Amino acid sequence: MQEKDGLGEGADVEPGIGAEATAPVPGWGWTEAALAMMVLVWGVNFAVVKHALGAFEPLAFNGLRFVVASVLVFAVLYLRGQFSMPGREDLPRVIALGLLGNVMYQMCFIPCTMRGKAISPDSMR
Questions:
Q1: What separation, in Å, do the N-terminal and C-terminal C-alpha atoms of the chain show?
Q2: Residues 76, 97, 78: CA angle, nearest 5 degrees
Q3: Residue 97 belongs to what H/E stretch?
Q4: By the 8 A CB rule, do 54 and 121 touch?
Q5: Residue numbers of the chain with a pLDDT score lower than 70
Q6: What distance in Å separates the CA atoms of residue 11 and residue 48, rounded to the nearest whole number?
Q7: What is the pLDDT of residues 37-66, one digit of tens each?
Q8: Is the Cβ–Cβ distance between 52 and 119 less than 8 Å?
């Protein structure tokens, strides 16, 4: 089917493709702001890690990162009244996910960041 709705003369447009809002579309809110902050944090993460590895040993740096993150997450969950310990039946899965998601990831991330040539600690001074 060919239509002329801003796509140029004779553009092919499939019928039924397109999204139209059926309700008012909300503006910029907390969710979008949090997502933008997450992108910013993840975006500068490699540069911060690379710089920090020039000042700390990798094991000390990771230990510090995990302690700070754990305290912050605990505080937020506790203040919101959402903190609870996992049940005994969930402990093997929690431990396995912790080892995979933290230990294995960091064993790959830190050495690769240290070897990377994109940012060197000397160039950040």
A1: 60
A2: 15
A3: helix 91-98
A4: yes
A5: 1-18, 116-125
A6: 47
A7: 999 998 888 888 888 888 888 888 888 888
A8: no
